[in-house]
Amino acid sequence: MSDLYIGLMSGTSMDGVDAALVRFGDATLEVLATHEHAYPAALREKLAAATRRSDARSPADVERLHENVGLCFRDAAMALLKKTDVERSAVAAIGSHGQTLRHEPNAPQPYSLQVGDGTIIASGTGITTISDFRTADIELGGQGAPLAPAFHEWLFGQAGRNRVILNVGGIGNVTLLHGDGSDTTGFDTGPANTLLDAWIRRHRGEACDRDGAWAAEGRVDDALLARLLADPYFAAPPPKSTGFEYFNLEWLETFGIDAMDPADVQATLIALSASSIADAIRGRADEVLVCGGGVHNRELMRQIRCRLPGIALASTGSAGLDPDWVEAVAFAWLAMRTTHGLPGNLPAVTGASRPAVLGVTHHAANRK
Predict the structure, then answer these.
(1) Per-residue pLDDT tens for 133-150?
(2) Which of 40, 108, 286, 336 has the most CB within a 10 Å radius?
(3) What DSSP assignment string belongs to 87-102?
(4) Helix (H, G, I), strand (E, B) or coil at 221
């Protein structure tokens, strides 16, 4: 069996697909190529609308998104391979996260919905594709998220070192790697970039607050920050996971912000992200390795550092993996685990009743 895998990932920013071609060894990896594949503007708008109007989605709407996102993921994989001299027949499998529309692990009937048809990816690339990684864990009573901690443990775990891997995406999440050999734990911390992005999009029409520059112009409203941090999610014990279906502008508007200066709201939101992340880490680690798009937000990283004095903070690049590609590589690794019949979840993280082989496998009809 080949040791080459492709990981495909799209997060809550919904701007497109991150694709990584990875060679795995027994305890090592090599990233051979990466590719960023943007969603067409019309598709991005439809995805954003689908997350805002979850109760109004028809089955036909979801199916069209499932197909169109699948086509984008297929194209991302093919564009990635064009950057290399690797034949598609040399790739063992593709691990596709898909695009999350809804994550409801605590609903009366728990579920997590990702669109991006794995059959389309498999048939279009000629490469076996594994998708729908979260459902098996949820069926075992787990949160279905976060799933990256098993990969973090494999790559970054070191005896005698208490490390935290911090992913700063739309939602923040932490993996707690315990140097004494006890079970790895982890959970979603709450909003990282998702509220910051949504607020600047509303008021300035910009996709993100680059370097946290707008937030740095405002003043933190301490009373508002205290009310935001009093949300029950932050004090809830793990296992726990969340998403933009909970932490969104509708949630924010319940705190009576209409009369506030928008820049002050942004300043308070970045303080919310930094505070909730720091609270999740404080006292649990000697060092923190950061990945995800938020690693480039200078103001957010400055505020996290200020709240964690005495703890070494660096990007995962210092440990050998570019912070922009950790999640895509993680899904390549999860595909490798599934291909070999090995579990990909950590029950101590998700709360599942047992480890499970994750994902649905879509076999390619033809390999060329």
Answers:
(1) 999 999 999 999 999 999
(2) 336
(3) -GGGEEEEEE--EEEE
(4) coil
* Cα–Cα dist 348/357, whole Å: 16
The verdict on pTM exceeding 0.85 is yes
| Cα(257)–Cα(273) distance, integer angstroms | 17
Q: pLDDT digits over 257-274, tens only?
A: 999 999 999 999 999 999
* CATH of the structural domain 4-144+328-362, one choice from 3.40.50.1240, 3.40.50.1580, 3.30.420.40, 1.20.1730.10: 3.30.420.40
Residues in the chain: 368
Write the single-letter amino acid at 243: G
Angle between helices 326-339 and 148-156 (to 10 degrees): 100
Burial 236-251 (b: 16+ CB within 10 A, else e): eebbbbbbbbbbbeeb
Residue 26: Cβ within 10 Å count: 5
Closest by CA to 329, choosing from 278, 292, 300, 288, is 292
